[in-house]
Each structure stands twice: as C-alpha cells, then as structure tokens.
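Task: sequence design from structure.
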C-alpha cells in the first residue's frame, strides 16, 4: 500500500487541497483535488477525481471554524486513502524571505520565523501559515513541509535583486524576491522532458494567470523575474497594477488623501485588467467584449508582456525560446499568437494550427521555439514534500 501526500494551497478566500499517492521512483499520482471556500460566511467543501467526477460537495453553517473544516478534511482524506499511510502535508508558502531557499520541514521554530516574515507578504502569508498551525494543533504527529514561491529565484544575481534605495532599507529585506517559483520550477522540469536542448538554453516562461509574471531561465536556473518585492511589480494582472511609477503612491497619499489601506485595495484589488477595462478581471470576458476599454486592457496586457520579453532577453543575453503557462497562457490562443507576432523581431512566430495544442510547440520550424505547457504547482509541492520527508540517497 502506497503512502499519501496532501497538498494545501491556501489563499485569502479559499483553500485548495490535493491528495497524491507515492508511485515508486515516478512522480506521485493525483488521487483527487478539492476546495474549501466561503470560510466564515457559508463554508463549502468539494472534491473531484482527476477525471472531474465529483467526490464530495458539502455545505456548512457559518459557525464552522477553520479547525472544524480541517478536521473534516483530514477525516475525508483518511477515507480516500483506504488504509494507506499519510506521509505528510505540503504547503504552498508565498514568501520565504532570504532565509528559506529550499522546501523546509515545519516545526515551532520555522512557524515562528514565518510569522516574522509576514510583513513581506501581508496579504498572503497569514493565509499560508494558518493551515500549518491548525494542522499542527490537531495532528501534532503529522509532518508538514513548507514549499516557497520565492525559492526558485534565490539563484538570481544579487545585482538583479536590488532597488536603488538607501542601504538600510535593503538591509532589512526590501529587495526583489520574485514569485510563482513553484510554477517556474515545474515548467523547467517538464521542458527537460519535452525539449531537453531548449531546457539547457535561455528561456522566458510567461505565467499568465489571474496573477501574472515572467521569468528568465538559463539552463534551468532563474536569472530574474518580473515580480519583485511584493506581488505587484511587472505585468498588469487580473486586479493588480503591475509596474507603477512610485510617484503615483505619493500622489494618492498627498493629493487624494487616501489611507494606506485604501491604497492597498486600489493597487491589489481594483487595478490591472479590472481597473483598466472597468468591466472584468477575466480575460475571457474582455476578449468577448466590444467595449473600447476592454480592448485597451487586453492591448496593454500584450504590450507589457512583449516589453518584458525584450527586457528579460537582455537580462539573459539572448533568447532561445518562450513558454506560455497558467490560465491565460494555457488557454488563450489569441494572447499567445499576438505576443509571438509582436515579438517577430526576436525571431518568434506562431503556427496557427499548432497553437490549438493544449501542450507542445506552437511556433513553426525555422522560428524560435515557443511552447504551451500546462503548469502544476500542486504536483511540484507533492514532489518537494516527498523528497524532503524521504530524501533519495545520493
Ligand atoms: P490563478 O492565478 O487564480 O491560479 P489561473 O492560472 O487559474 O489563475 O488563471 C485564471 C485566469 O485565466 C482567469 O482570470 C481568466 O482570465 C483566464 N482564462 C481562463 N480560461 C481562459 C480562456 N479560455 N481564454 C482566456 N483566458 C482564460
């Protein structure tokens, strides 16, 4: 009987979970995926098999606490395991600061450390930490592993991590970190299987989801990325600004008399595709709309991706290929085609027939390599959790 690994990806409004079973030397097998949402309001618990067959769909009263829901989740998971042992739980953690450079077993000391890092990611970190604390309280014997979205970027050249600010601010950790690292790590790993020669070269990966960033990767190592200190820099996202002149923050403070909280809401929740279009943060809605602001939001998104592609190519000292991933990158043929056509000066082109693929090369022979590869951050966490708890002998 094989061992199970539960993966927890906790956000502000929902907690995603997945159960995997160890599969010898191969990647763990997905058993089911699920979601707990509406916590504190109208909690719902749902789960599906890998083929989409519903396995659970339950509603709870608003009084159901985090602990009640996690207790229920773990009982349900035990049922799914059918007698197999639960090896441990792997968590997605948005920020590991400068300390946490590899997946790490969670103990009281690590939890206290991660709490200290919350000012670096105040909107995300508390949601990541809370399930670890709940599980530690409910199941003190359960091994937990924290997997960091920043870790993949710890190979970045120190120069690329700087902001030109006074040293004392840099010294207390105000610098570029980068995020979406678990996704980039998964894509690098998958690219090695799909196109081993390209995986050894200079590649830009475009992670275009409701959060969006791009990463310059050289021979599998992150060189730099468009997200920096917080999850705001770089590309415009569903509701986040992307790059912004910091003078705008001063304008909002001094002229508009906005509070820090109001500015935070504006930057994280009211901007990006939603702010520009005034319509939606969903690319599908914007693509289907004839509203001129919706068109402008999409045009700006494409324009910024292409600018960053040039900038990241400069950081790499050349470019051999590009990979599209995450919601928009995996599903929008139009976004991929427009980015590749506009980047013809770098040697890119699109093959319209190949561009319908769910995974594979989408550029014609003779052009630089462009791929679509679905990401799988949860599988990456399961692999890290397994390797951290059961290291493969050297
Ligand atoms: P998250 O960052 O929440 O994990 P995803 O990677 O799931 O985000 O991406 C979600 C986004 O993908 C949605 O906001 C939507 O704009 C976009 N998306 C999903 N399907 C399509 C599609 N067929 N065409 C264009 N965009 C899509």
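Answer:
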């Amino acid at each position: 009987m094989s061992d199970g690994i539960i993966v927890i990806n906790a956000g502000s409004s929902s907690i995603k979970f997945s159960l995997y079973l160890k599969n010898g030397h191969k990647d763990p097998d997905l058993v089911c995926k699920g979601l707990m949402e509406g916590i504190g309001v109208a909690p719902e618990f749902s789960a599906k098999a890998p083929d989409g067959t519903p396995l659970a769909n339950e509603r709870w009263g608003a009084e159901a606490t985090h602990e009640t829901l996690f207790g229920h989740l773990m009982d349900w998971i035990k049922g799914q395991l059918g007698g197999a042992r639960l090896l441990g739980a792997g968590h997605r953690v948005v920020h590991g600061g400068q300390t946490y450079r590899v997946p790490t077993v969670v103990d009281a000391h690590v939890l206290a450390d991660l709490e200290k890092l919350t000012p670096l990611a105040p909107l995300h970190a508390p949601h990541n930490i809370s399930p670890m604390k709940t599980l530690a309280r409910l199941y003190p014997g359960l091994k937990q592993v924290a997997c960091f979205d920043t870790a993949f970027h710890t190979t970045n050249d120190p120069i690329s991590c700087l902001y030109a600010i006074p040293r004392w601010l840099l010294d207390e950790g105000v610098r570029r970190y980068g995020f979406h690292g678990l996704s980039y790590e998964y894509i690098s790993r998958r690219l090695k299987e799909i196109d081993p020669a390209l995986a050894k070269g200079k590649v830009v990966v475009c992670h275009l989801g409701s959060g969006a960033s791009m990463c310059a990767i050289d021979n599998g190592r992150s060189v730099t990325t468009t997200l920096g200190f917080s999850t705001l820099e770089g590309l415009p996202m569903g509701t986040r600004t992307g790059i912004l002149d910091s003078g705008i923050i001063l304008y909002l403070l001094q002229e508009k008399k906005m509070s820090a909280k109001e500015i935070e809401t504006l930057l994280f929740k009211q901007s990006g595709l939603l702010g520009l279009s005034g319509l939606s943060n969903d690319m599908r809605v914007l693509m289907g709309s004839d509203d001129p602001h919706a068109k402008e939001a999409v045009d700006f998104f494409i324009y910024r991706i292409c600018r960053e592609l040039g900038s990241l190519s400069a950081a790499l000292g050349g470019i051999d290929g590009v990979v599209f991933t995450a919601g928009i990158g995996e599903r929008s043929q139009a976004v991929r085609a427009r980015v590749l056509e506009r980047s013809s000066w770098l040697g890119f082109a699109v093959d319209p027939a190949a561009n319908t693929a769910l995974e594979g090369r989408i550029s014609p022979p003779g052009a630089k390599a462009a791929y679509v590869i679905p990401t799988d951050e949860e599988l990456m966490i399961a692999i890290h959790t397994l390797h951290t708890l059961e290291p493969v002998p050297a």
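The two ends are 25 Å apart (CA to CA).
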